[in-house]
Structures are given as C-alpha cells and as structure tokens.
Known about the structure:
The chain is α/β, with parallel strands linked by helices and about 375 residues long. It has 2 domains: about 5-180, CinA-like (Maf protein), CATH 3.90.950.20; about 190-375, HUPs (Rossmann fold, 3-Layer(aba) Sandwich), CATH 3.40.50.620. Helices cover about 35% and strands about 20% of the residues. The chain is built from 12 helices and 16 strands. The chain has helices at about 5-15, 30-35, 55-60, 70-85, 140-155, 180-190, 225-235, 255-265, 280-285, 295-300, 310-325, 370-375, and strands at about 20-25, 45-50, 95-100, 115-120, 125-130, 170-180, 195, 205, 210-215, 240-245, 270-275, 290-295, 330, 335, 340, 355-360. Strands 8-7-11-10-9-12-13-16 form an 8-stranded mixed sheet. Helix 6 packs across helix 8 (about 255-265).
Amino acid sequence: xxNDVQQLVQAIHDNPVRIVFVTAGxxxxxxxxxxxxxxxxxxxxxxxxxxxxxxxxxxxxxxPRQYVADDTARLxxxxxxxRARWLESEGPMVGLACTATIITDRPKLGEHRAHIATxxxxxxxxxxxxxxxxxxxxxxxxxxxxxxxxxxxxxxxGLEQRLSxxxxxxxxxxxxxxxxxxxxxxxxxxxxxxxxVQDNGRIRTTDAHxxxxxxxxxxxxxxxxxxxxxAAAHLLGKPVAFELAAxxxxxxxxxxxxxxxxxxxxxxxxxVYVSHATTFVEKxxxxxxxxxxxxxxxxxxxxxxxxxxHSHANLCAALExxxxxxxxxxxxxxxxxxxxxxxxxDLDIPEGFANLFQxxxxxxxxxxxxxxxxxxxxxxxxx
Length: 383
C-alpha cells in the first residue's frame, strides 16, 4: 500500500464516522485499502459489491435507467446511508457509493467513467470522473478511481488530507452538491414555502407538484407508512411522495437537525417534501390538486372545530378552500382504543363535504402499528 494512502486511511479510521460502502465496476482497491489498515471495524459497517444486474437491482429495489450514471450513484449512496442507519442507531454515518465502467477484457464503445457519491443528512456530494480512454491499463484506472473514492470519504469525514490524483488534461472531474442544510435554513427563514428531496437526492422547490402526499412526522418512518403509500399508489394509479411536517398544530416546530435527520430516512428510497404548513388548508395551497393520504386519527383531527377557532363555520370554510384547491383525502383505517377498526365512514363530516374523504379499503391496506409504540418499545422503523 502506498504510504499516502495508508496515512489517509488511518486518519479515516481515527474519525468517528461509520460507513456502508457500495461499489460496482471499480473501487474495490479502495475497499481493500480500508480493510488493509488496522482499525477498519471503527469505520466500516458493511461493504457490498453488487456486480451482477440482479444483485444491483435488488440493492436499489429498482432497475435504474442506466447502471453507470450520476443519478444511479446517488441512489446507491442513499440506500447505503439508510442501511447504515439500520445497522447503527447513533453517531455520524455516511453512505458511500461508486458505479463505474473501466477497462475490461473486451472493447467498450462508450467512455470510461466513474460516479462516486456520499450521502449524509446535511448534504449529498457526487463526483463524476471521465477518464482519458486508452491512456491507462485497468490497474491504472482502478487506482485512480479508488484514490478518488478515498478522497470523497475523507471529505465526508471532515478531514483536510487528500490523495494526489494523477489526472491528465483529457481526464475530466466534475462535482455536484445538494445542500439539504441550506434548504432547511431557507425554509425556516421563510425564504421558500417548501422543498422536496427526490429519491436520487435532487432538491426541488416550487417547481414540484406532487400528485399524492402522505404527511406525517415520521419519527420513525415505518412499514405502516410504506404500506399505506404502496396501497394508495395502487388504488389511485399515481406516484406517492411523503411530506414531513416541520411544524405541527399540536407540537412545537422541529429543530433543523431533527428535520435533516428525519428527511434522511428517505434517502435513495422515496421522494419527500418538507414544509411549515400546520394545517391541510395551508398544505392545499402549497400543493394544489394533491390527494392527501392520512390515517383515521389525522382525519378526525382535520374535522375538529378546535383547530378552527372552535367554529363549525370556520371548519366548513376550510374544507371549502381545500375543495377549491382541487385537493381531497384518502383515509386509511385504524384500530381505536376499544379495538374497533375505524375508517372514513366513521368520520363526523359536515354536510356537503363527504366527497372530500375516500376510504382506503382495509383489504388493500391494514397495518396496526404506530410510531409511538415503536419508540416506546425501542424498535427501529423501516429498513
């Protein structure tokens, strides 16, 4: 092992960051370097090499449009990060991913390139290296990609050390960063009404118009939320996104670090939006035309006059505003305290507004689970 590599890897192992590392096509030298210096167990939670297409698709839980692409690297890093959270409940974590195509035993028509991404709650960083094709042998291309991977990891750890990269004028290195911490600050300062993070990490602001939204606090995100989203997508024939309520009518606003931590549960998996809208009237104005997927308990609160100045007339005016925004509710049933299963037909809906509330049939979705029960029992959320 080269001396500069050994020194950088040692500094990484001495850092508190834990990682899940996923790579395909190149980058196994970086993994070997991490394992080749004492202290790897302090850094590496898990390493995966999904080389075959079936393994790759299974890891992502989808077939990517292109296997070697920056979007795919971001998806991989997101999945690696959520995997790290599942394996390690505390401390700083990073999802590190590489997807690459370099010299093999047959000629390749396309360019030789590598896409490397690191996903953390505060931001996502992706680097694309386009190699000077034909200049290096496979060992040379692998060495360059692996050194870049270690540099990306060092940066994610907050280290200043970097390995030199033997780039030529025909090699091209690009970087893109998606800053979730900045977006959250802008939201808290009232500069933007909401923002979204796609499953591949891209940030969307007011150009986004989600068709179906499942809102909640997601503390934690669990299989009940995911099952509800899948059933709603199947019933409505539309994609479902999640919305994290940074403010709630019943609770104090979430601090920025909490928002970032909860947003990161969706990394590489599902699109998620975050806003300060405390009522569904506000949400309807932010997301016109959306169907809101809610549990029965939430639907009950939506219809309680106490949230509208204890006025039935104000409640009806709010429901009318929601209708004017072409929004409605899809209600999932739930067991109540008397072990009775309640659904939309059990709601006390003001006259004239029943068509705003549709039942998500229990034969399509029913999962008696709650975030409160998971927290109190010390269980984790969704994988």
